[in-house]
Design goal:
alpha/beta; 4-stranded mixed beta sheet; 12 helices; 8-stranded parallel β-barrel; 362 residues
Length: 362
């Protein structure tokens, strides 16, 4: 089982340590520099996020594909705002123009306020997962069908759809830990994406997703999102983690944002917040920022020297994780550091262990 690294193009060179919440402003120079750093650093893909106030992810991916030759793109995409037949053609076109360097990360959306900003008002979380299920069914039909097809569903009514463009290689990533999400992932996901929880929690969600996929006669890969903090010594790395916590706390307090008592609405954030009940879990899982922000997205990390963090990633690899989405709190500099000190080390250790037969993944 090969190991893949996914970086991040967050539109500008800021994070939670620079403001109470992440800025969505577009800085083209940063995007150019981040693309170059992560392509040269050996990343396989970069995630381009989606939000109701964000720059448009597919356009940024098209821009990035034109500036790179090898780097792949994981395009976050939210069902419900574009007709699935049109989205299928947009993504297939991007696949063709990038020579197969695109994957799509389907973001169903768990927060009602976030969805309402784009006009999705009155839907429940269960309804949104049902819509994603139907959306993905149509997406795959449009990608594979050479003849016109009809679709009559709860959310979409289509007559004689057919596309002149089809993808050669377009994996579907999907996340969410509610029962509805796990079922949709089992039916449609090529890669199931989850956040950095404890090894026991990761083992549990991997088992659930594999069982769901097996019910549909499928198998699924797995992606884990983390915010590594690495330094020359373990002491220096934990000192830096504490500095990051202090900066996040100060920024949130200055902007009147809560740093405790969070009650997230989506299941994934609730799980991650439970993980954050202790600042350190397992050998080196760090949850300080997750606790401060209410586990709003990818907010846990592994802390230590590059060798120690590499060993931590290998432990997740043993549990079936073969994609690691890593990003830092100084986005550009951390991406460069990962490419120099962490990515090649993990690849080397995975290759050696696989060759020796010592590593039994999953």
């Amino acid at each position: 089982m090969s190991v893949n690294f996914i970086g991040y193009i967050g539109f500008n060179n800021t994070s939670e340590i620079h403001g109470g919440v992440r800025s969505r402003a577009l800085d083209p120079r940063y995007v150019q520099d981040a693309l170059k750093a992560q392509e040269e650093g050996g990343f396989d893909r970069v995630l381009i996020p989606f939000g109701s106030s964000s720059p448009e992810s597919q356009i940024v991916a098209a821009y990035g594909a034109a500036l790179t030759s090898r780097l792949g793109f994981l395009v976050a995409h939210r069902p419900g705002f574009t007709q699935p037949t049109l989205a299928a053609r947009q993504l297939a076109t991007l696949d063709q123009l990038s020579n197969g360097r695109v994957a799509v990360h389907i973001i169903t959306g768990g927060a009602d306020e976030e969805m309402a900003k784009d006009g999705d008002v009155g839907t429940t979380k269960a309804e949104r997962y049902a819509r994603s299920d139907e959306y993905l069914e149509i997406l795959r039909k449009e990608w594979s069908s050479m003849e016109p097809f009809d679709h009559e569903g709860k959310f979409y009514h289509i007559r004689r759809a057919v596309s002149a463009v089809h993808p050669n290689n377009l994996p579907v990533f999907f996340g969410g830990t509610s029962p509805e999400a796990i079922d949709v992932a089992g039916r449609h996901a090529d890669v199931y994406a989850t956040w950095g929880e404890t090894l026991d929690a990761t083992r549990e969600v991997v088992s659930r997703v594999r069982a769901s996929a097996a019910r549909y006669g499928r198998s699924v890969g797995f992606s884990l999102s983390l915010r590594p903090v690495i330094a020359e010594t373990e002491e220096a790395a934990w000192k830096r983690a504490k500095e990051i916590e202090d900066l996040v706390r100060a920024n949130r307090e200055q902007q009147g944002l809560a740093v405790s008592g969070h009650r997230p609405l989506n299941d994934g954030s609730r799980r991650l917040l439970e993980t954050a009940s202790d600042n350190r879990r397992d050998a080196r899982l760090w949850t300080g920022v997750a606790a401060l922000t209410g586990a709003a997205g990818n907010s846990t990390g592994l802390v230590g020297t590059p060798e120690q963090v590499a060993e931590g990633l290998i432990e997740y690899y043993r549990h079936g994780i073969n994609n690691f989405l890593i990003r830092g709190f100084e986005p550009l500099e951390d991406a460069k550091h990962y490419g120099e000190a962490l990515v090649p080390l993990v690849r080397e250790r995975v290759a050696a262990l696989e060759a020796s037969g010592e590593l039994k993944a999953g």
